[in-house]
Amino acid sequence: MSTPEMTLYYDEVSPPARSILMALSALGVKDRAKLVHIDLFNAEHFSQDFLKVNPLHTVPVLQHGDLTLTDSHAILMYLCDTFATAGHDLAIPDTLTRAKRKVFSGEITEPSEHLYPIEETIDALELYLKESKYSALDRLSVADFSIMATLASVNIVLPITADRWPRVAEWFDEIQALPWYDEQQRAGVEKIGEMFREQLNNV
Q1: CA geometry: angle 13, 18, 24, nearest 5 deg
Q2: Where's the GST N-terminal domain (predicted)?
Q3: Which residues contact 159 (CB under 8 A, 6 or more apart)?
Q4: SS3 191
């Protein structure tokens, strides 16, 4: 068995990390990455070993050869640029589109603390999706993975309902039906949900 070409430091409770896992699976290169779990709830991102990898103590981190990337959007673009074949549906080829449609993503591990700004952002996403089938283009792209990962966490305490956000709800259901969703998203979302329920029980 060959040595993995990449190393991904991640925790499934991190929406940006989950977006990277989805991209790796969708691009068919997950088996080429060594996955190193960093337990955020147990503060493993502050360990001396991990701080040598990323002094900013955040996940995800992707190492590929001599390159180390610590921003999830940069990682998504790098994976597409490096591994997507020409015309691959997930790639965002236009630089201007990339910049304009970097709608949002975040380190949301406690979604109840982010409700009001997130509501405004979902309102904006609703307007975007009235103009385009997906968040960046009229086809699925890694931008959808990034946004979906955050919304999947927010949905725990702020349900994405069709009466309030009809286009977002339609898009949300479609992304959830993708073959990579259960494998790469559900475990992290369920873990966040359990944490949130424990907090409510302790109030």
Answers
A1: 150
A2: 4-87
A3: none
A4: helix
